[in-house]
Amino acid sequence: MTSRRPRPSRGNPVRTRVLAVALAGALAPLALAVPAAHAAPAAAPYDFNGDGRADLAIGAPDATVGGRSKAGAVSVVYGSPTGLRTATRTLITQNTAGVPGTAEAGDAFGSAVASADLDKDGYADLLIGAPGEDVDGDTNGGTVVVVWGGRSGLSGSRTIVDYGKQETDRYGQALAVGDVDGDGDLDVVVGSTGTAALSFVSGPVTRTGSFQGGSGAGFPAPYSPSYGVTSVSAGRVSPAWSTSLVVHGRQPRTGAAVTHLVTDPSIGNFTDWWQELPAGTVSAIGDIDEDGYADIAVGNPAEPSADPAGAKGGRVTVVYGGPGGEDTSRAPLVLTQDTPGVPGAAETGDAFGGGVFLGDVDGDGFQDLAVGAPGEDSGAGSVTLLRGTAHGLTTKGAVSYTQNTAGVPGAAEKGDRFGARVLLADHSGDHRAELTVAGPGENAADGAVWSLRGASTGPTTAGALSFGPSATGVSTAGTPRFGSVLGT
């Protein structure tokens, strides 16, 4: 890889403390049966059974497992020619055979998920974070496991090494995958609290054998180590770097959001060269205008009283990508529900931008943007879809969906939080992304997920699917908040 140095950050540069690991890790792997050789190329993320369709991982970190409150669970619903089918599913907990550990109260298994074909066998693998896991006497030390994909779906697992145990807590509260060091192997990116809030586990990650080393980065001011890295997105913003990261955290005392673009994480001292982005709590990376540079949508659902970077009702800022990361020749696009063309009106508490995702719903080659507003109408929630074009994102033809939209199952009720998580992925293999929406407050916080099929005109409510935790084997004891996490 040809390494280029990104442009300096705004303001004074800061230093990263790197925890270099010279020796391979020594975690003992589980004894797993390795499937027969699979000649297919590396699978796309979340294609766990190698059929060419994206599958859906649904996190319920508050789920009760074996009578243990908030132990956490992840349901995987597989794609099919007709979209998601709850009849073909896998439930994963720490009580699942082959998964390390035991389901315990407060483990929060499923707080974060990520996917990639880590062992390059033609089946995507699933990474799951359990930041509440107690490790070797360290309360909330946290852990991450990888569950392996295969012809029949997901099975077998091993723990991802934590090289910085003394420097981290809540290991696994954020997850991503990318070729961070540009060597052609996929690396695991783990967010945590503590003085080394971002950890890298070098690839390849395989079913057996030693890990390949890694490093950790401490994020100095304005990041608070108490919050750590709360969310991280990975993508190829510019062809100059194999993987770039969008990192989210919070400031000490105020809790205000902080967001940066790390254009080339292979530069060990990368915070000397990070780029400040509009502050937010979530992000999505994708090439909206098909110019060869990925763009970044940053969601900030906060009110200005809680976060100076927030807006009444919440906001989303789209930063266009270029050769050096952010394309400074193009003004960022700021979206609220008061933006002309965006349905609705900005009202206090709407939380517009609480969920964001980029995907191609109509198959035209341009990435479209789904935005959740889970606070809309006293927490009933809504989702807005905006279309991508050769000129960038447009508000022309923007559409909003609620549970009161004709064809969407259910009814909008206070506290449903429809739109808390949104996702655009092709579960049917027709090259059009379905719109998946989570409402973790549905049915007194049982939670539910909706899926609307993609079409040339955008998501259609005809044949819309909705299901709750019971449909995928998750207990409704307590408040599982099914759909608190979506991954694809």
Give helix % range.
Answer: under 10%
Q: What is the percentage of strand-forming residues?
A: 35-45%
Can you summarize the main beta sheet?
A: 5 strands, antiparallel
Structural class: mainly beta
Would you identify the regions where 5 or more consecutive residues have pLDDT less than 50? 1-39
Termini Cα gap: 27 Å
Global morphology: globular
Could you tell me the number of beta strands? 31
Keywords: Glycoprotein, Hydrolase, Repeat, Signal
GO molecular function: hydrolase activity
Organism: Streptomyces argyrophylli
Pfam families: FG-GAP
How does this structure look, described?
With 488 residues, the chain is mainly β. 2% of the residues lie in helices and 35% in strands. The protein contains 2 helices and 31 strands. Strands 1-12-11-10-9 form a 5-stranded antiparallel beta sheet, with no helix packed on it. The longest helix has 4 residues, at 376-379. The radius of gyration is 21 Å and the shape is globular.
